[in-house]
Amino acid sequence: MKKLLIFITLFVIFILYSAIVYTSGTQGVAANEKATEGKLIFQKYNCTACHQLYGLGGYLGTDLTSLISQHGKGELYAKAILKTGTPRMPDFHLKDEEIDALIEFLKYVDTTTITYKNKI
User: Fold this and answer.
1) What is the value of pTM for the model shown?
2) 49 φ, ψ (degrees, to nearest 5)
3) Which tens digit of pLDDT belongs to each residue from 12-68?
4) Domain spans of the chain, in order of start
5) Nearest Cα residue to 25 out of 88, 113, 102
6) Is residue 110 helix, strand or coil?
7) Is 36 within 8 Å of 30 (Cβ atoms)?
8) What's domain 33-120's architecture?
9) How many other CB atoms sit within 10 Å of the CB of residue 49?
10) Nearest-angstrom CA–CA distance, 31 and 8
11) Distance in angstroms (rounded) separating the CA atoms of residues 41 and 99
12) Pick from 14, 26, 15, 49: which is nearest to 112 by CA?
């Protein structure tokens, strides 16, 4: 009986936590119209087939979760890659507005991440 009570308690906590994370995690994108447009473009071109966000997605490309704040990368780096492609990433011939929207989406995603960096 005690194990069942513990299980039910943990299950209810998990459901509540999932609901809070899901709803609070999507509010920022909805508030930023450009980031919402970028999210739709990200989905349209199936970027998760190769790239990861929050550890979910493909392994061919880089993890884009904290790309904007990574040392040596950032907005200009992302724009250059999106405009020209690389040997592993095709050039999708995106319009400047689409690139700007994708960058806004990646900036939003970057603000929602927690990164742990080694201090040397």
Assistant:
1) 0.70
2) -65, -30
3) 999 998 887 777 655 555 668 899 999 999 999 999 999 999 889 999 999 999 999
4) 1-31, 33-120
5) 113
6) helix
7) yes
8) Orthogonal Bundle (1.10)
9) 10
10) 35
11) 9
12) 26
